[in-house]
Amino acid sequence: MSRAAVQRQQKTKIRLAVGFGALGALILAALVATPWQTFPDLRLWIPFAAAFVYFELHAVEVNDRLFASPSIMVLLTAAVVFGPGSAVIGAAAMAAVGLLAPEDIVERRWFQPIVNFGQQVASATAAALVLSLVVGVGLSEGASAIDAGLWRIALGSALASITYGLVNYRMVLFIVGRVYGRLEVRPWSHIGAILLPMTGMGFLGGMLGATYLEIGTAALPLTAVVFFVGYMAFESYARLREAQESTIRGFIKALEAKDLYTRGHTERVARFSEMIGKQMGFDGTQLERLRWAALIHDVGKLAVPRDLIRKRARLTDEEYEVMQLHVHYVEDLLEDVDFLRPMVKIASNHHAHYDGNGYHGTGHEHGEAPCKEACILAVADTFDAITSTRSYRVALTQPYAYAELRRHAGTQFDPEVVEAFIAGMESSGHRYGSSVELTEEEARHIAEEGLDQIRHADQVHGRNFPLAPTSKETPDG
Amino acid sequence: MAETRLHRLSIGLLAVIAVLAAGSLFLVVRTGGQWALVLLWAAVIAATHSLSVPTPSGKRINLAIGPAVAAVLLLPDVLAVTAAVALGLVGGWIVLRWRSKTDRDADSDYVAESISMIAFGLVASTMLGGIAGSTIPFAWQQLLSVTAGGVVWFILRALVSAWVGTEREDLASRYLWLLALEDWTVALAIFTGGALFGMTWLVMGLWAFPVAILPYAFSHLAFVRYSSTRVTYGQMIRALAQIPEVADLAPRGHSARTADLAVAVAREIGLHPVEVTDLEYAALMHDVGRITLTEPAILKAGYTDEDIARWGAQIIAEAPYLQEVSEYVRVQHSPYRRPGEAKDPDVPMISKIIKVASAYDQAVHEMQMSPLESLERIHRGSAYDFDPDVSSSLRRVLVQRGVVAA
């Protein structure tokens, strides 16, 4: 990004922070001033606010990249408990303190917290207003929410959580659009996936509030248990999922690092594949499947003797056979891992061609087109191969890789995937491969001549130019 | 031998519960109590006994404690509660038998659950009757009583199942006791659902259903996902551990067999369940460093077992959640004691177990020795190479498995 663009973005950020900060402060001031709202009993407000802050700071990744926290549940339980006369100011104050993240203060981040402050206060106020309107209309002053009837609390809290979700989403769209110039963060179809559990949690929160109004303080410990056990259950699940993914990533990283030609390959292919998937409108589950398939696609190659991977001359037929075995190694190794079964099928077809030729995994008929995900993997894998230095030739340029992908589109590669990849790559602005124009002939020639001669041309984006492996190299490196 | 005795005891206790059920139901009817309500709760308890949820410890816990909590709160006295719970337990056992999902082990597990459930019913409803009329608000009386009963239930359940497991499988009771305690989150979720229903049914009517069931349903979803992820995580580690075997750099099946034996020894010794999981992963991956041998230069230069262990540990250390496992793999070859020195206190038990299990499997499968010869070999190495505690535990496991004679 140019300096002018950075400055422009900085200015937008300041404007947004001032605007949202003022919005939050204004709402709070208006609520303090209005006689219609009185602050709830502090003995009730403090525990609810503490739980709210805790959950806001510890959101759990329940589904791929989808963060959720039971804070909406706490907010609505509290709003019902406070009653229509105190719900709005109580909820707004909870949202206001919910953003005191210690890391932000330590790292002196100001933009995110201030904008979030305004955004959260506004969404919480809107939600509590909806609840108070549904529950409070026709109630005499000072009456408890329970007098309105349970169905109105149920309806009100469900509507309130939908309001909260929508207001929050509109504001995030607005902010992201202003700062990053992107209008869509998530397609609308994905918002349903967030709103549904949110409505469920909001409804449950409201009903737990009603329980408090019905049976008194004995409901509070039970409510706390509901919050925390549910939270812990999801949190331990999310942590285990993360452990699973980081384990396979770590393993592959460690094993690839042993060889200069493969170092980082899997991570890049995973990144490219995910980018293509997003470009083609995949949803969270599909993206996760794709990412996993990319992570495991070369696991089999780790079992191939290194000298084959490093060989400079063309492989003999026999060696080529051994090399291709890695596709089946993946199947042997990972077919017993239940959740990886669909991904193994994708991964084992990453050498299959769009027109049905090429080398494919077990159970895949010759002549049959591989699935979309396998096509994506093939494009990502090939692009990284062309733009990385291999034993038999040095890295080629990005435009050369594009041309090569386009040349084989329709036969080896799926044309739609190739175009999605190039479009995504261009909009990301990243550069891979050599910065020096080379033909394939020259690239092979240089590799044969020895890499010493091209060490000065090491302007490969974001990576050190790979050096020739020596026999002294130990796996510790 | 112990098994038959255990089974006889279980059937005897079931008969006692059946008599208790019949007797208390008879008394309820005689005194003009709400026998229809008792039957209803007994039916719910019986039905939920066959529904269960996987727990973080890898076991399952059935849902019957939920309705039992609600029954304590909604039935009038100790007699009615006892009748409902005992009748429900007998009914649940009949359902289990009828679905033919039962064997001797299931019977003794069932009775273990039943004893703690009846204890729960007695404690909670006696306490509820006892503090009735005190100045404590009614809802708090309810909450305190079921909580007291719940604590008794959970501890008794862990104790009895640990005892049953020790009797049946010769596992260390410490291991089983800790394993049962791991289930507290799931137990608490089911328990809270029951308490919410019992406390809100009279005031909220049908709304008590969503109030009680929804929170549990949310947690249930997470528990089920957790347990399936736990299984696939284990499978994935097993798969990664096999890379050297697929590449023909390590003997096939060695890591899986070593892990299996090591876990059995660890349970026999009584390691904490969390450590047993770490041990399983470490044992599966103890030879993963052999993947380095795809490097021709290393094959040529030569290497030692310690090198393999160190390279393996380096690979595992790249996984952020396996730091400890990596350390266990790194020191797996450390001797128990060097001649003339005191034993080395720094070698973790897990590494010592892997050392023994791996050496035994190597002797049997690579040196073609008989199990007894292999065990003798380990015993001869005890006190220097191997920890004597581990090698005698190995003997007990092998005897238990019928591989060597007692």
Number of helices of chain A: 18
- Mean pLDDT of chain B, nearest integer? 87
Percent range of helical residues of chain A: 55-70%
According to DSSP, the number of beta strands of chain A is 2
User: Could you say what the CATH topology of the largest domain in chain B is called?
Assistant: Arp2/3 complex 21 kDa subunit ARPC3
Strand percent estimate of chain B: under 5%
**Shape, principal axes of CA atoms of chain A:** elongated
- In spatial order, strands of the major sheet of chain B run 1-2
Quick synopsis:
With 477 residues, chain A is an all-alpha fold. Chain A has helices at 3-33, 42-57, 71-82, 87-97, 102-106, 111-136, 150-180, 188-215, 219-256, 265-279, 284-296, 306-310, 317-334, 341-347, 372-387, 398-407, 415-428, 440-449; strands spanning 60-63, 66-68. Chain A contains 18 helices and two strands.
Word description of this protein:
- The complex is a heterodimer of chains A (477) and B (406).
- With 477 residues, chain A is mainly alpha-helical.
- Chain A folds into two domains: 3-224, Arp2/3 complex 21 kDa subunit ARPC3, CATH 1.10.1760.20; 257-457, Hypothetical protein af1432 (Orthogonal Bundle).
- Chain A has helices at residues 3-33, 42-57, 71-82, 87-97, 102-106, 111-136, 150-180, 188-215, 219-256, 265-279, 284-296, 306-310, 317-334, 341-347, 372-387, 398-407, 415-428, 440-449; strands spanning 60-63, 66-68.
- The radius of gyration of chain A is 28 Å and the shape is elongated.
- By secondary structure, chain B is an all-alpha fold.
- In chain B, strands 1-2 form a two-stranded antiparallel sheet.
- Chain B has 18 helices and two strands.
- At the A-B interface, helix 8, helix 9 and helix 13 of A face helix 6, helix 8, helix 9, helix 10 and helix 13 of B.
